[in-house]
Structures are given as structure tokens and as C-alpha cells.
Amino acid sequence: MAKVTYYVALPFVWTEDGELVAGDAKEFQSAGAAVGEAQRMALKAAGAVAFQRHGDPASGEFEDAVVIQRFGNVPNDEQLLGG
């Protein structure tokens, strides 16, 4: 199967314990749509991030995610990307 690029908006919320955790992600067909949704999510959450991921769903092989834009309180890149 051909490689595809996924564009995602992901909100972050504060727990009662003061921990910043990811909410429910939404997938989009373009970077612009993901950025727009992340910006809207950040108005209702602690923050949000738009990112993209490129890979082959059939093989399960994906490149590292690339942060497109962040809004508000979100983990730093190392925490966000699992580094």
C-alpha cells in the first residue's frame, strides 16, 4: 500500500491532580484543517497541538510525528513525541 500522511489535532487538559494529559484526537485531510481545529480546541482545553505523521498503514511503519503548530499549554516536543 502507498504511504499516506495523517493530519491530527490533539487537545490537552489538566487533571484534578494537576497533570497535563491528552484528550481525544481528531484526524483531518489537510494540515490547515488540523491547525484550525487545534486552535479551536485550545479555547476549551488547556492547549492543543496539530501534527502530521507519514507512513504505510499496511506495514505499520511510520516516520516520527512532526508538530505543525501548538496552542496554549502542551507538553514540550520531547515529551510529546516520546523522546
Largest sheet: 6 strands, antiparallel
> What is the CA-atom radius of gyration, in angstroms?
13 Å
Q: Are there runs of 5+ residues with pLDDT below 50, and where? A: none
Based on secondary structure, the structural category is alpha+beta
Query: Count the helices. How many?
Result: 2
Distance between the amino and carboxyl termini: 28 Å
Please tell me what the overall shape is: globular
H/E series: EEEHEEEH
The portion of residues forming beta strands comes to 35-45%
- State the share of residues found in helices, binned by percent: 10-25%
**Total strands:** 6
Number of domains: 1
Roughly what is the average pLDDT, rounded to an integer?
91
What does this structure look like?
This protein has 83 residues and is α+β, with helices and mostly antiparallel strands. Helices cover 22% and strands 43% of the residues. It is built from 2 helices and 6 strands; from the N terminus they run βββαβββα.
List the helices and strands and how they pair.
Layout lengths: L3 E11 L5 E3 L3 E3 L2 H14 L2 E10 L4 E2 L3 E7 L4 H4 L3
Antiparallel strand pairs: 1-2, 1-3, 1-4, 4-5, 4-6
